[in-house]
Each structure stands twice: as C-alpha cells, then as structure tokens.
Design brief:
The chain is α+β, with helices and mostly antiparallel strands and 255 residues long. Helix content is 40%, strand content 13%. The protein has ten helices and five strands. The strands form two sheets. A three-stranded mixed beta sheet has the order 3-4-5, covered by helices on one side. A two-stranded antiparallel ribbon has the order 1-2. The protein starts with 8 loop residues before the first helix and ends with a helix.
Length: 255
C-alpha cells in the first residue's frame, strides 16, 4: 500500500546532506551510500525484467512505481553496490510524495552531497538516467514497453533525428562523432517508437567502452520522437578505418 510521506522532499534532502557531511572523505561517503542501498524498498523479483530496467545505466537497475491517491511509491534494485546506493538515495528523497512534486523535484542536494564532483562519467550518466525515469513515471509518461504510442509513425523522419543526435556524440580520444566514425552498425525503429542501435568500438579494449554506449543510449532516448532506446555492443565485423565517412577521413587527414 502506498502511504503519503511525513516529510517534504526538501526536508528529506536536507537530512541526506547532513548525514553525508559527517564523513570527511569519499571512502566514508561511498560506504554510507552502500548502506543506504541495503535499506531500500526492493523491487519484487518478478519485476526484475527488461521491462523495468533503466536504460543508460552501465549496471543493471530495475525501477517500479506504484501510484495510489496521487502518491508515488518506488521500489528498485541493482546488481552493483554503488548504483544500488544511488537509486536508494533518490528513492529516500522522493518516496511517498505527490506525483507533481516528484516530477518537478529540485534535486540540487545531489551536488551538495558531492556526487556530481566525485562520480565517474559512467555513474553520472547512470544517475541522470535514473532521474529521468523517475520523473517520467511520476508525470505519467507512458512506458513504451507497456503501451504503444499513437499518432503518425514516420520511421525515416525519426531515423534522421537519431542520426543528427548521434553526430553530437564523440569518442573522447578522436575528434569525430560516432556516426561519421562508422561505429554505428545499425538503427532499428519499431512501431512503438522504441529504438535498437547496434554499435561497435574502434577496438575491443577501447578506453571509451564504458562511456560511449551509455552516451549513445541516453542521447537517442532523450529525443521527443523516441519512446526508449537500447544499445547493443558488437565487434562482428571488426572495425576498420574503411567504415569512416569521407568527412571523417578528411578530418583525420586520411584523404
């Protein structure tokens, strides 16, 4: 049963900031984050499926929202301790609150705790994906794995938007976007506007392996014309420089 919260989001946030201020270093804060994950309301095992997985997180994270009397009750889980702590932190601040309050919540307390300063790029991307999904669930945006989007469906137009979005994502070591670099092997758009992207990396040991797939997934999923996006990393066939566009070859001095 969903119950209303006894404190406001702002009050919960202040309590969290005060707790983290006790610790002098980030080792202590990380340990506290892990402890928070242990006390989080866990999602039922039957919901730990792809249907409830948050896209854009390197680790697996499952999130479910129950809404009763306009109050939101979240349950979640993750297969990684720090990630589990991060979603637990958000749930602690937002659980039991009104839908509108959750959807429009001021989450600047995360900066005051120091998360954005100390988290890796991967975990920052994952945290933003969690926040986005929480806001969507609270605001009543349909989960495209539960229902089909109505309206006209123009796959060609959507693909053009996706390609333009992909051209804003860059390999951190190469001054060329992932699309012109030839890292995108395939874009599949389904009638419910979910998107599957097959991509590769320049080498299997590429330092960007933990960053680029998540950036691509987030960038495409954030498009208004896209309901959700999933990236599949593959190395078949292996990447070669011949896959670059002419513009990319020119930029890198290969022409």
């Amino acid at each position: 049963m969903t119950t209303a919260a006894t404190h406001t989001i702002a009050e919960n946030a202040e309590e969290i900031v005060e707790e983290f201020s006790i610790f002098d270093d980030w080792l202590g804060k990380y340990e506290h984050l892990i402890e928070l994950g242990k006390s989080m309301p866990l999602i039922d095992e039957q919901f730990k499926t792809d249907q409830y997985r948050i896209r854009g997180c390197q680790s697996q994270v499952w999130l479910r929202a129950d809404i009763v009397d306009d109050n939101v009750q979240f349950s979640a889980d993750s297969d990684a301790l720090i990630t589990k702590g991060l979603i637990a932190l958000l749930i602690r601040a937002l659980n039991g609150q009104k839908r509108d309050d959750v959807a429009n919540a001021d989450l600047s307390f995360l900066d005051r705790v120091g998360l954005n300063e100390h988290l890796s790029s991967n975990r920052k991307n994952g945290l933003q994906a969690m926040i986005k999904q929480i806001r969507k669930l609270a605001s009543g945006v349909p989960d495209m794995q539960h229902s089909e989007v109505g309206g006209d469906f123009d796959a060609d137009a959507i693909e053009e938007e996706i390609i333009e979005a992909l051209k804003t994502v860059y390999d951190p070591e190469i001054p060329v976007n992932v699309y012109d670099l030839g890292l995108i092997y395939g874009i599949t758009i389904y009638p419910d506007r979910t998107v599957h992207i097959s991509m590769t990396l320049t080498t299997p040991n590429c330092p960007a392996a933990g960053i680029l797939p998540g950036q691509v997934e987030n960038k495409v999923a954030n498009l208004a014309s896209v309901a959700d996006a999933r990236v599949e990393l593959t190395f078949d066939p292996p990447y070669t420089m011949d896959m670059m566009s002419e513009e990319a070859k020119l930029e890198l001095g290969f022409l």
